[in-house]
Design goal:
Blueprint (H helix, E strand, L loop, with lengths): L4 E11 L3 E12 L5 E12 L2 E14 L3 E12 H4 L3 H7 L1 E14 L3 E14 L8 H10 L2
Antiparallel strand pairs: 1-2, 2-5, 3-4, 3-6, 6-7
Length: about 140
């Protein structure tokens, strides 16, 4: 029997005065002919081997029937927390991260199931001095 599947992508959504907000974009595929309620989303963001932030998003909605549903989970990280990984950021002006997400979905007959997702990657931080974009793209290739 098929089960719902999901894929995960992470981007910077917003940089405010006190925090940076990452957006975890989750694409959930529902193979069933009826919608499925998402009971809860649990998330944790790690960098430099440390858990930076974690939380839950209760009752975010339903997964549409026979379709792909996009669920956006905002993950807000205060700058003072980012300072704990400043050594990693200062080295190459990016954040190496791992995000772990658990989707708790209610399946008729089976009950609740958990769909674990994780993704590792790096996010380049925007420069505040208006640096040359060409220099940034060269930096990315230096790491390969």
């Amino acid at each position: 029997m098929k089960k719902p599947e999901a894929d995960l992508d992470v981007d910077i959504s917003k940089m405010g005065l006190h925090a940076i907000t990452f957006m975890a974009n989750i694409s959930i595929t529902n193979p069933y002919s009826h919608s499925l309620p998402i009971c809860e989303v649990r998330y944790a963001l790690f960098s430099a081997g440390k858990e930076i932030v974690s939380g839950t998003m209760p009752d975010p909605g339903d997964i549409e029937e026979n379709d792909v549903t996009l669920l956006k989970v905002p993950v807000k990280v205060p700058y003072n927390i980012l300072m704990t990984i400043a050594k990693d950021i200062g080295r190459d002006w990016d954040i190496d991260y791992e995000v772990r997400i658990r989707l708790i979905v209610d399946l008729p007959i089976f009950g609740s199931i958990t769909i674990p997702l994780s993704k590792t990657g790096e996010i380049k931080l925007p420069t505040i001095f208006g640096g040359d974009d060409d220099d940034d793209s060269k930096d990315k290739n230096d790491d390969e």
